[in-house]
Structure formats: C-alpha cells, structure tokens
Specification:
By secondary structure, the protein is an alpha/beta fold. The protein folds into two domains: about 180 residues, Rossmann fold (3-Layer(aba) Sandwich); about 180 residues, Hypothetical protein af1432, CATH 1.10.3210. The chain contains 19 helices and six strands. It is elongated, with a radius of gyration of 28 Å. The structure holds adenosine-5'-triphosphate. Adenosine-5'-triphosphate binds next to helix 1, strand 4, helix 4 and helix 7.
C-alpha cells in the first residue's frame, strides 16, 4: 500500500496544490492521498488574517474533493504544538505499519528540508515526491535530490508537470481586491466568499452568475439595470461603485420566492414579519433577501442593510442604502410611471430630494391601489421632506395623476 501525503498551511489551498497532487497521484498511483493542513507550521508564521482551524480544514477538504482518491486529514490540527512533519510521519507509520509513505512537496520545501525538525527521521520514514512550483529550476532540484539520496539514503521522486506558479500569500493579497478566483478551486472560493475569509470581496462576474440563478429569467434585466444605475449613482455621489454593484446584484435574490416560501424563509432566519408584511408577503423579499445574501454570499453589514431597505426605505438612510433604493426604482429598464423622469433627474442633482419624491410617489401609488402601505415609506418621505426644509431646499413639484 502506498500513501501520498501532502502537508502545508493550505491558507488557502489553491490550484498549484491541486495540480501537484493530481500529477503526483497519476505518477505514483497511491492507494490513498492525504492533504494535511498544519496547525502551527514550524517554518513559517501564519498570516494575521488566517482563518480558524475549522475553516482551514473545510477548505482543505473542499480542495481534496478535486483530487481522485484524496481526503483531508486533521492529524496535525488535532495535535498541540508546532506541526512537525517527523511527528506526523511517526503517527502515520504506527497507523499504517506496512504502507509506503511518500511526502509530496514543492521546490521551496525540497531546498529547505535539511533545516526542518528531524530531517533524517522524515527521510527514513517517507519517500519524497517533488513538484516544481515554477519552471527553470530543474537543475537545482536534480542536484538537491542527488544530495539527499547520497546523504540520507532518501527516496526522491521528481515529478514532471506544468507548474502553476502561484502562492497562498499572493492569493490572500488578491482576494480583498475582488481578484484571485482563477487560482482557486470553485468550492474553496465559494467558501471563502460565504465566510468572507481573508477580507475577500466577491468577483462580480462570479457573483452575477451565482445570484442570477436565484432570479426568474424575466428579472435578470431589471437586476442588470439596477446594477448599472447603482454604479452611476455611486460614481456621482462618491460611494464605492463595486460595493453598490454588489448590493444591486443581490437586492432581489429572494424575490421569486412565493408568499409561503417568504414566511418559511423568515422562520429560517429568525425574521418576524410585521402586520404589513403579513398582509403583503411580497414586501418580505427585502428582509429575506438581506438575510440570504449575508448567509449565502457573506454580504457584509452595509450591503446587507442596503438590500434590507431597498423596498420601503427608512429615515436617515446611508449613502449606499439611498443609492440602491433609488437605483431599483429608476433603472433604465423600468416601465414608465408618473414621476420617473423627475426622480431620475433629481437622483443626479439632489439625492435627498430624489429619495423624498420616490417615497412620496410610492405612498401615493400604494394608497391608491389598496392596503398595506408600509409605514416605513411614510416615515422615509417625512424624514427627507424635513431634511430638505432644514437645508432650505424645496421638494420637487410633482402632482399625482
Ligand atoms: P504561503 O504563500 O502561505 O506561504 P504556499 O502557497 O507556499 O503558502 P503552502 O500551503 O505553504 O502553500 O504549501 C504546501 C506545500 O505545497 C509545499 O510543499 C509547497 O512547496 C507546495 N506548493 C505550494 N504552492 C505550490 C505550487 N504553486 N505548485 C506546486 N507546489 C506548491
């Protein structure tokens, strides 16, 4: 029996790890491959933003899913103190007395192995399989392999394959910039975004693909329009256009859920519908959408609350809340309604006047149609009317038809 072992910080595991493990598995045909995240790597400090052990184990397990015959092992995460490879190999030797153990590593590790804790024990207990992290270092690898064979009687397999020259460090720096997805297995990226590990923000192309799957096809154009308008408003008023786009992409993510489904979703997220929402559960998509966006896509507080208030509005909204509230109402694909042109114009001239008119028009429209005018909209209109008066501005003149 041959067992391939791959130890590392896996912080996060990336396509370089996957490529090398797959190549090793194809070349060495192990009966089993184990990815072993280190609890405390002895030779490097874990970055400050390192997720906890549960998240690192979960990400490693998701990466292992991409490699045939592979699983994640918590053998080092469960051990106290520095995660010495020699201790891990001793434990595995006891567990699998007859197995051939092969420890897979990249170029950097091969070249530094003599500085590890008990290198002679490592090379006595396991063979080494080497996969280059970057092209052009074949000479160095061959020389080190010869040296280790000579000095320690090591078994060294040098693997042949196209390197993926990337490191977890580079990826951690890219993730907050909405980049780096191309270096990560899908499941790992999804986990990182859902829990916003490493300060990650989602790649918006990825987010659109995922979020649109929750929409009725006929709603996609509206969401695209809302995103475009939210970006334009953000650029006009000094908000982050990408954050505005993220909120807009997610704002209707539970809209297609039926009234019963809305109530079930409320139960799931501990939302207590108010009297107006019970009468008109459609209103609930703002609350359920915010909760779902946070749960499924890790939407952070400011984005969550922009989704939360996009339908009724509320007094004293944040800039992002006002942007999404208006973008939803005035995006280019909206069927014309009275006051639309006036709100659109105002949205680029006086944001508060636009919010006031938008709320006023909703009050008028919903009152005319029947029940369930939500008091938050009434309060929103009153608040922004006062705000306009306080700054000496007049509300926009508009007569309900
Ligand atoms: P960090 O940037 O946080 O130091 P890393 O990208 O070097 O992380 P580790 O999890 O520390 O990744 O590495 C675990 C093992 O994977 C090591 O043996 C390392 O040489 C190897 N390795 C890492 N990246 C690659 C890669 N792109 N190609 C091949 N092997 C790699």
């Amino acid at each position: 029996m041959r067992i391939l072992l791959y130890g590392g910080s896996f912080n996060p595991p990336h396509l370089g790890h996957i490529r090398s493990a797959r190549t090793a598995a194809e070349a060495l045909r192990p009966d089993k491959t184990l990815l072993i995240p280190a609890a405390i790597p002895p030779h490097k400090r874990l970055a400050a933003e390192t997720p906890d052990r549960t998240d690192r184990f979960r990400m490693t397990a998701l990466a292992a899913d991409q490699i045939p015959g592979c699983e994640a092992s918590d053998i080092e995460l469960c051990r106290e103190g520095p995660s010495y490879t020699s201790d891990t190999l001793r434990q595995l030797r006891e567990r699998y007395p007859a197995a051939e153990l092969v420890f897979l590593m990249g170029t950097d590790m091969l070249l530094s192995i003599e500085s590890w804790h008990e290198p002679e024990v490592i090379m006595a207990l396991a063979g080494l399989a080497i996969f280059a992290r970057e092209a052009g270092r074949e000479g160095e690898i061959a020389a080190q392999a010869a040296h280790l064979r000579e000095k320690y009687g090591a078994t060294v397999y040098v693997l042949d394959g196209e390197p993926v020259p990337v490191s977890s460090t580079q990826i951690r720096a890219l993730l907050p910039e909405r980049q780096g997805r191309e270096y990560l297995p899908d499941g790992v990226y999804e986990h990182i975004i859902r829990h916003r590990l490493y300060g990650a923000k989602p790649d918006l192309a990825w987010l659109r693909e995922k979020a649109y799957a929750y929409l009725k096809p006929t709603r996609v154009e509206h969401v695209r329009g809302t995103e475009a308008m939210a970006r334009a408003l953000a650029a006009r008023w000094g908000a982050d256009p990408e954050d505005a786009a993220e909120a807009a992409i997610l704002h209707d993510c539970t809209k297609k859920i039926s009234p019963d489904g809305q109530l079930r979703t409320c139960e799931k997220y501990g939302i207590i519908p108010d009297k107006w929402e019970m009468e008109n559960p459609e209103l609930l998509h703002a609350k359920t959408g915010a909760a779902f966006a946070a749960d499924r896509f890790g939407a952070p507080g400011p984005i969550e609350s922009a989704i939360r208030w996009h339908t009724t509005g509320r007094p004293d909204m944040t800039l992002l809340e006002r942007i999404v509230f208006l973008a939803d109402a005035i995006e280019e694909g909206r069927k014309p309604y009275p006051a639309l042109d006036a709100i659109r114009k105002a949205a680029f001239e006086d944001l508060d006047a636009a919010v006031e008119l938008c709320a006023r028009r909703t009050v008028e429209y919903v009152t005319r149609r029947g029940p369930s005018l939500h008091p938050d909209t009434v309060r929103t209109q009153a608040f922004y009317l006062k705000k306009l008066e306080a700054k000496g501005a007049s509300p926009i003149r508009w007569e309900a038809p």
